[in-house]
Amino acid sequence: TKSLVNPQLDDLRQLLFQPVVTSFVQSLLIQTGFTTNTMLQVIVVALLATTAASATSSYHAVMSLINTGSYDGPIVVALLSSLFTFFALGIIIQGALLAPKPPADADADVDDTSN
Q1: How far apart are CA 8 and CA 19, in angstroms?
Q2: Are 68 and 20 in contact (CB under 8 A)?
Q3: pLDDT tens string for the chain (115 positions)?
Q4: Residue 71 DSSP class
């Protein structure tokens, strides 16, 4: 069913709530003891670190091609590394763009019933 509240996330929900993905995430949360917020931060940092390593590999491959006219190793690895760099950054940017904005007043969300 399509969401009436936020239809732009329907594709993401369809991917995330597959039984294989859901059970993997649940077992990962149980094994690590992390909360979902902590797990998200760990995944984003891991993606950024992998992207940095991938970008470094791509940079060295390009510089080797420019300086020597050849590349010592399979060029496909460098090309796939570059592709992964842009893909990982795209995922992070897409997530940041689709993330809900924090409320203007954080105290407005708290229900004060301690009278």
Answers
A1: 21
A2: no
A3: 676 677 777 777 777 778 888 898 899 999 999 988 888 888 888 888 888 887 888 888 888 888 888 777 777 777 787 788 788 788 778 877 777 777 776 555 555 555 5
A4: -
